[in-house]
# Entry
Amino acid sequence: MSAADPLLSIEELVTEFYTEKETVRAVDGVNFDIHRGETLGIVGESGSGKSVTARSIMGLVESPGSVLSESSITFDGEELTEKSESEYQNIRGAKIAMVFQDPLTSLNPVYTVGNQLKETLRLHRGLTGKAATEKAIELLEDVGIPDAARRVKEYPHQFSGGMRQRTVIALALACSPELLICDEPTTALDVTIQAQILELLDEIQEERDLAIMFITHDMGVIAEVSDRVAVMYAGEIVESAPVIDLYENPAHPYTNGLLDSIPGEEPGGGELSTIEGEVPIPNGPATHCRFEPRCPKAFEECLEVPPQLLATEEQTDDHRAACLLYPDDMSREEAVQEHRAAAVRTGGIDE
Ligand code: ADP
Ligand code: MG
# Structure
């Protein structure tokens, strides 16, 4: 491993659920890297596969779900998909920690905040007694909880929503993880508290060179936290780019739709525009563009060729879109041909 290698590398991640009614292909061939000190924002409407992607990385996909065997998840040079449950338990918490939308799912109401922190410190760092208490107080101070020496003895219900989420972050940091996965961590909070939590994450990241995967449906939040952004739709990444590029030059019609839906961004302050229709539930590999029914720019071939995540311009590598309109410096016929050839190479369609 060199410092230039990504900390986390996901290749062709496919996660399916087998229900009585159908197969749900919740994540369908996702690829991305996250480097140390970097925040990858993952954005998309509800049901696009963001949480299942996170749970796949954490080894938390339970029956009737499974991460398909062609998938690869490497963390710090190690293949995670081959780990046993007990090996995964050591990775969870110690190397990769997760913060969820609702802090109460991560906190136990019957134990004091301090006891929960101390239990984590005992399990993962072997700290007990006074050393553990001191470390617990220090962690609460690190996440900006005032009067930590007193509050460490309180119960979660004595904390406000923002303070609870700070406590969950303290719990996540208790094991010194290298990667923090945040799944809609501020969605339940009001905007002022949300801004404080985002600032806290930013400080923590800087201090610890932490890699962060930040999931949200909110394009405004994504703009604030991300270095790079991956836009997800119906199990696939449909666009990826450095954050500034994504906002200055959004390529995919879906990304444009999400950007138009940010409150206050619509010209003339008129009606909030949302994308009509719903996210489809994929039941197998893509055979066409899943956004086509909702796309204002759709044309005939969109129903015949599954778009691949290709460069938006032939010379670019770090801005990609899974849309037959790109690369936009090619003719439409050539671009469609590029996607068709790429889909054949990855086994998506037959020749
Ligand atoms: P997001 O986090 O982007 O809102 P999810 O990752 O939670 O979306 O879900 C993606 C898709 O996977 C949805 O269609 C959802 O219904 C399906 N899904 C998630 N968990 C399960 C499960 N345990 N069984 C069946 N389908 C599931
Ligand atoms: Mg989710």
About this structure: The chain has three domains: 1-95+179-264, 103-176, 285-351. DSSP finds twelve helices and 13 strands in the chain. The pocket of magnesium ion (ligand 2) is lined by residues 50-51, 183 (CB under 6 Å).
